[in-house]
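Q: What residues go here?
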């Protein structure tokens, strides 16, 4: 029986736009943004940021030479928020509330960074002014735990820290590699269409037990 549900962030809870992110990074001077940004798993010092090996300020300083200009925190955050393709679908957030009301434990398990998460934990995240964490029991973010999906260690960290069993846990992600990694840990999974509406599919799985 499913008792716990873990969600990816980009492409699942919020609509992800790699194309828009490329444009927002180009606007701050990163000419080769299309080569540096990845759709699922960042590389180089972008990966260092999302894995917590460098701070937001370290990342900004490393980015400046490639943009050939000085950058403020807001400049860089604005570029990262290019990944947020559309306003948050409030129906998904309401569904997260409903799941908790129905007794399910809900979590975030995401490759993300402090620029994106500072927005997610602000009143700007939702129309109601609520931050992301208010919809979930706990958020496991790659830059905070120092591990990125699809590394199996991040799934084990969540299971151990939350005290939950893999066979009782459902994980939603739009990345086949992340889904495969979760399945290898015995976690039940749902590969969702990027930016799709997965509420009906989740309800169907929950009704099966």
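A:
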């Amino acid at each position: 029986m499913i008792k716990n549900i873990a969600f990816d962030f980009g492409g699942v809870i919020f609509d992800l736009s790699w194309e828009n992110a490329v444009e927002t990074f180009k606007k701050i001077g990163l000419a080769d943004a299309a080569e540096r940004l990845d759709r699922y798993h960042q590389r180089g010092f972008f990966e260092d940021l999302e894995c917590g090996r460098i701070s937001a300020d370290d990342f900004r300083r490393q980015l400046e030479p490639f943009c050939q200009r000085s950058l403020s925190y807001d400049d860089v955050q604005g570029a990262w928020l290019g990944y947020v393709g559309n306003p948050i679908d409030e129906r998904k957030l309401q569904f997260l509330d409903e799941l908790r009301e129905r007794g399910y434990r809900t979590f975030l398990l995401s490759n993300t960074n402090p620029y994106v998460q500072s927005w997610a934990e602000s009143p700007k995240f939702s129309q109601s002014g609520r931050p992301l964490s208010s919809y979930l029991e706990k958020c496991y973010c790659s830059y905070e735990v120092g591990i990125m999906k699809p590394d199996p260690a991040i799934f084990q960290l969540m299971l151990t820290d939350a005290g939950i069993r893999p066979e009782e846990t459902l994980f939603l992600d739009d990345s086949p590699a992340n889904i495969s990694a979760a399945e290898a840990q015995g976690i039940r999974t749902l590969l969702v269409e990027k930016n799709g509406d997965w509420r009906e599919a989740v309800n169907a799985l929950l009704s099966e037990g």
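A: Context that may help when evaluating the design: Residues 4-15+88-208 form a domain with the Rossmann fold fold (CATH 3.40.50.1000). The first helix runs from residue 18 to 27.
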